[in-house]
Design brief:
Number of strands: 11
CATH architecture of the largest domain: 3-Layer(aba) Sandwich
Strand order of the largest sheet: 7-6-8-9-10-11
Strand content: 5-15%
CATH superfamily of the largest domain: NAD(P)-binding Rossmann-like Domain
Structural class: alpha/beta
Order of helices and strands: EEHEHEHEHHHEHEHEHEHEEH
Length: about 325
């Protein structure tokens, strides 16, 4: 038999999961039925990424950065699976140049993120955390009556919600808002005039009672909420960010909270995560009108299961092609 006619063995693909601990316990990708090597790491420091991907065929990541130098160190890499929608941690141009396919998960989390948005809105609008703490501190007993009014409670009905970004998550937030009897408007991009179905960005800032951020982080949107934006907030709105932390300028946010230009802030994302010792937001973490949660808006159990199933299916499809 000639060498050309021989059936040569196909090396088993190597699948490397770089930050498995970003999914909750009990949520995991389904292992493929075909022969493979599987390596799980709960978390991966930047200095370890290249070595762990050295002989990888498939990389599974959530927030680990894959830059050009890291991809150069992984010559056998053919697929990157991203356990999220956002892919700003992946050098997509470098992947395309090297023939590396990239698959993310779209539409898995609209419900869970929208619910988290309103958990923050309601907690801030009704001062739930302040009232809870006051009960723990003995204020209820001291009041001498069935209730007390130390903190304002404001209804959502009749107030205006402005959405900054109108994709699947923004749409889900808008539908919940309408159920509460809120008026929902969508802001046009900064610098653009109002258009059918959208108010100008400046009008959104000036007239909103609640602002909810759902736009991607790009060079144009980085620092979108700066000192000038906060100065336009005439109605002292609640500001909610479940998108990307760097949409908001940190020092400008601290100044706005301190000066009372916003009546409440709910953040599920920061510019650098986890929070760093020098993050400006540290100055307002204990402010009674500020709630910061550790990037968990997306983390509903059903949503995480959808991520795992979507990535598992994409992996199965890739491996079937890899064997041919």
């Amino acid at each position: 038999m000639s060498l050309a006619a021989e059936t040569l063995p196909v090396p088993a693909p190597v699948i490397v999961v770089l930050d498995a601990a970003t999914l909750a316990p009990g949520i995991a990708l389904r292992r493929p039925a075909v022969p493979h090597a599987w390596r799980d790491f709960d978390r991966t420091a930047a200095g370890d990424t290249a070595e762990r991907l050295r002989d990888a065929t498939v990389a599974v990541v959530n927030k680990v950065r894959l830059d050009r130098a890291t991809l150069d160190a992984a010559p056998g890499l053919r697929l990157v699976l991203v356990a999220a929608t956002g892919m700003d941690n992946i050098d997509l141009d470098a992947c395309a140049e090297r023939g590396i396919a990239v698959r993310n998960v779209v539409g898995y989390g609209a419900a869970t993120v929208a619910e988290h948005v309103f958990a923050l809105v309601l907690a801030l609008r009704r001062n739930l955390i302040a009232y809870r703490q006051s009960v723990l501190d003995g204020r209820w007993e001291e009041s001498g009556q069935f209730c007390y009014h130390d903190f304002p409670v404001r209804e959502l009905q009749g107030s205006r919600l402005a959405l900054i970004g109108s994709g699947a998550i923004g749409g889900a937030v808008g539908r919940i808002a309408e159920a509460f009897g809120m008026e929902v408007v969508v802001a046009a991009r900064k610098g653009r005039a109002a258009e059918p179905g959208r108010v100008s960005f400046e009008e959104a800032l000036a007239t909103a009672d609640v602002l909810s951020l759902h736009c991607p982080l790009t060079p144009e949107t980085r620092g979108l909420f700066d000192a000038q934006a906060f100065a336009r907030m005439e109605r002292r709105p609640i500001l909610i960010n479940t998108a990307r932390g760097a949409l908001i300028d940190g020092p400008a946010l601290v100044d706005a909270v301190t000066a009372g230009r916003v009546s409440g802030v709910g953040l599920d994302v920061l510019a650098v995560e986890p929070i760093t010792p020098d993050d400006p937001v540290r100055a307002i973490l204990r402010h009674p009108n500020v709630i910061v949660t550790p990037h968990v808006a997306w983390a509903g159990r059903a949503a995480q299961q959808r991520i795992a199933e979507t990535l598992s299916s994409a992996l199965d499809e890739f491996l079937q092609c890899h064997r041919k």
